[in-house]
Sequence to fold (436 residues):
Amino acid sequence: MKTLKIPEATIMRLAVYSRYLEHAEKQGITTVSSAAIADGSGVSPAQVRKDLAYFGEFGTRGVGYRTGELNSHIRRILGLNRCWSAVIVGAGKLGSALALYEGFLSRGFRIVGVFDVDPGIVGKYLGDIEVLHVSQLEELIAREKAEIGIITVPASAAQEVGERLVKAGVRALLNFSPLVLNLPEDVIVRNVDFSLYLEVLTFNLVFGKIKKEVAEEE
Amino acid sequence: MKTLKIPEATIMRLAVYSRYLEHAEKQGITTVSSAAIADGSGVSPAQVRKDLAYFGEFGTRGVGYRTGELNSHIRRILGLNRCWSAVIVGAGKLGSALALYEGFLSRGFRIVGVFDVDPGIVGKYLGDIEVLHVSQLEELIAREKAEIGIITVPASAAQEVGERLVKAGVRALLNFSPLVLNLPEDVIVRNVDFSLYLEVLTFNLVFGKIKKEVAEEE
DNA sequence: TCCTGTGAAATTCTTCACAGCC
DNA sequence: GGCTGTGAAGAATTTCACAGGA
Fold:
């Protein structure tokens, strides 16, 4: 079979290009070059063209890309030509913040349910959505046909919640707990861990200094 | 100069290994093999060994690694053998959630300041930290010697905030706004965008289905 | 002339496979 | 026997450089 594999990095970059294009569109820029996109996304122009080439020819030689049109293409590639329903499990600070995050809706993500086990939290409203008890998880996922699960529970509960979400029919998970989940291969899981990103920063802060010293010695 | 470059992916994985090791330590497991770490981190055993090999020899042939000892090594590599001070700019939902996030402290990150421009937010307390007006940004960063900035302001203000943080002496930034910041090369910036992660999921949901269909046709 | 699309080259990253040590 | 550490092989990704079309 000749399904060429698309690098995950390409997908991430396409999403970044899309944000730049949206920004450019708002500024009234109707045509962009790969160099402009590259500039606005922190990559090389060749990289931009290669990434797009996986999916087709969207530009005009000698001219560039039509801003809005290219953005539509990218959004379709990313699956954003439709709305997606997601549930959040864990209505602590992070879960609540995500439930109220406006950025999701503008990209086509609708939060259709928020769950918790804490009786002090269940029943609260986050915007116009009521926090439900986890016991209603399966029912709501089935009713709303939610396909994405967002896990914002403590590490100790994450694995169990993941399994439950999958059993309830969710196909893709965004896991904010610091542990790697052990789930069937066909479930799509990505992890987000804030401390981890900070640790990448501190490594670079420390290591950058060392590199500079090494360079000066020679 | 012979400073071998460490892949960023290696750094991220080290942080993941560290979390697994902490988990294992709590369970009373004193010795782990590269296979165990790999299992708990979703990578291959060879990958674990290669990643560690960039920094030294931490294991014992025929035995494995001492859980706590290896974790200390990794924490030191990541720069976590000291405490780091960070400020958060933007005390909306996300900024507030991050300010209250317990996970930071346990990894050695201290939030020493939270800022906003909104008079309705300035003066509020998040835990025991008061939200200050952005006009006090420079002063507090200097006084607390904060080295890390976390940007949780709307996209339209992100670039300006980034520049201000850098001018005030911050060397590393975690940017939660959806736009790529344009800053001096020596500033370390990493972006976190929740919608982006969801878009990676949707791409895989859509594309996974297509791949399956293609496979079935042949 | 300008900028895209793309094979080919270069580079980076991962896996393999086994020597070395407990 | 078991598991680490590592050069060498292999795979994946990025960059280069230029052909091709507006």
Q: What stands out?
A: DSSP finds nine helices and nine strands in chain B.
